[in-house]
Specification:
By secondary structure, the protein is of the alpha/beta class. 37% of the residues lie in helices and 17% in strands. A hairpin with a 2-residue loop joins strand 13 and strand 14. Helix 3 packs antiparallel against helix 11 (306-320). Bound molecules: pyridoxal-5'-phosphate. The site of pyridoxal-5'-phosphate has 14 residues, from helix 5.
């Protein structure tokens, strides 16, 4: 039986309706910005494998960091022990974070990073005997697929089946251009509820919602009023972290720094699953007691896996390379030129750029469904032409690896332009 046939018989893929999904390409190799399938068809990874991979595939520095660590101490439990890769990673990461961030908690993926943030926020108040059990979150947010993360997520398609079983969330509009006042008023109303423990948000760009962008000054105001009201602020930087917005973290654009930050995706340079939730000293101190029940009793079997820590440290080093920084700036400048060229075209709207992210919406007579037909046609068009993108509804975006060169990026843009011609 072919690999693809075995896959179809036995494997259940993420976010996939298997009744309508045909056989999937079997990938056999990746190098740099490219992926190859078993028929030697080559694809440009235009979305850095779901926003994880700044350095391209099969990076040798990362591979060797993993090999060295795996042949020294591949994994050990993190309860009752510590180890050098975790400590060295923390030493490397802390100076990059907003200076109010002092404590690092490890987990496995973006959803668990959010779960840890939410649990810590709720327990922080519980530990003081204060009853606060609600969260404020943005409409159309995406924070992951576990229960707490899902509750804070606003994309209905993903959460509809579970909505009776979720944490209480007060949802407010996203302060996109023109909607700032409405969103800010909604936040102020929400903050009147004494049961609110935390406000969670994707800073400056809501990835899964279709790269919906809003400005730093308004988010600054949101954080400020939350902090004044004694509500903890959680920046979910799982997508925005590690230079995708043009700065190391989206929080770097803010004056008021969040109390908690969630990181994952590019943390290990797109190699191994790992996540981090970072906290202020004050939050950490809220868990200190002679009573063991006051501690944060949360953990995962592979917490702070040494191999993942070692490769994450190497990834942070690579990000500091001047070529990488030049790559980020180069992509950003090219995106701005693309935006200039297309911003008056009537077939596209809302063309937007943040760091290495470029997104625009195709003008359509009606609203297109998140995983609808139109989106599927776009997806198929790009795949057929050797470009991996995942359009959302009528939104097309790219988030290329930082190592993409001029010619390769031009190739991506020309496929975007072909798509605009073909699907308008
Ligand atoms: C992808 C994503 C998550 C969930 O991460 P997983 O690793 O898929 O669990 C959470 N928050 C944001 C902002 C994300 O983009």
């Amino acid at each position: 039986m072919s690999l693809s046939a075995i896959d179809q018989q036995h494997i259940w893929h993420p976010y996939t309706q298997h009744q309508t999904c045909g056989p999937l390409p079997v990938l056999v190799k990746g190098k740099g910005i490219y992926l190859w399938d078993e028929n030697e068809k080559k694809y440009i990874d235009g979305i850095s494998s779901w926003w994880c991979n700044p350095f391209g595939h099969a990076n040798e520095d990362l591979a060797s960091a993993m090999f060295q660590q795996a042949s020294t101490l591949e994994h050990v439990l993190f309860g009752g022990f510590t180890h050098k890769p975790a400590i060295e990673l923390v030493e490397k990461l802390l100076p990059l974070l907003p200076s109010n961030q002092k404590k690092i908690f490890f987990s496995d993926n973006g959803s668990t990073a959010v779960e840890v943030a939410l649990k810590a926020a709720l327990q922080f108040f519980h530990n003081q005997g204060i009853k606060k059990n609600k969260i404020i979150a943005f409409e159309d947010a995406f924070h992951g697929d576990t229960f707490g993360a899902m509750a804070s997520s606003g994309i209905g398609l993903f959460t509809e089946a579970f909505k009776e079983s979720l944490l209480q969330v007060i949802r407010i509009p996203v302060p996109v251009k023109g909607q700032e006042d409405k969103a800010f008023s909604a936040l102020k109303v929400a903050l009147e509820d004494e049961g609110v423990a935390a406000f969670i948000f994707e800073p400056l760009c809501q990835g899964a919602a279709g790269m919906i962008m809003y400005e730093a000054p308004i988010l600054d105001q949101f954080i400020d009023v939350c902090q004044k009201a004694g509500v903890l602020t959680i920046a979910d930087e799982v997508m925005t972290g590690f230079w995708k917005t043009g700065r190391c973290f989206a929080s770097d654009y803010l004056t008021h720094k969040p109390d908690i930050i969630c990181l994952s995706k590019a943390l290990t340079g797109g190699t191994l699953p790992m996540a981090i939730t970072t906290f202020t000293q004050a939050i950490f101190d809220g868990f200190l007691s002679s009573d063991p029940g006051i501690a944060l009793l949360h953990g995962h079997t592979f917490t702070a896996n040494p191999t993942a820590c070692a490769v994450a440290k190497k990834a942070l080093e690579l990000l500091e390379n001047p070529e990488m920084q030049q790559g980020i700036d180069f992509i950003h400048q090219k995106h701005l030129v693309f935006k200039e060229k297309w911003k008056h075209d009537l077939r596209v709207e809302n063309i937007r750029v943040l760091g290495v992210i470029l997104a625009f919406d195709m003008v359509r007579p009606d609203k297109e469904a998140y995983y609808g037909n139109f989106r599927n046609q776009l997806y198929a068009f790009f795949i057929e032409n050797g470009l991996l993108l995942r359009p959302i509804g009528n939104t097309i975006y790219i988030l290329p690896p930082f190592i993409i060169n001029d010619e390769e990026l031009n190739k991506v843009y020309s496929l975007l332009e072909e798509a605009i011609d073909k699907f308008s």
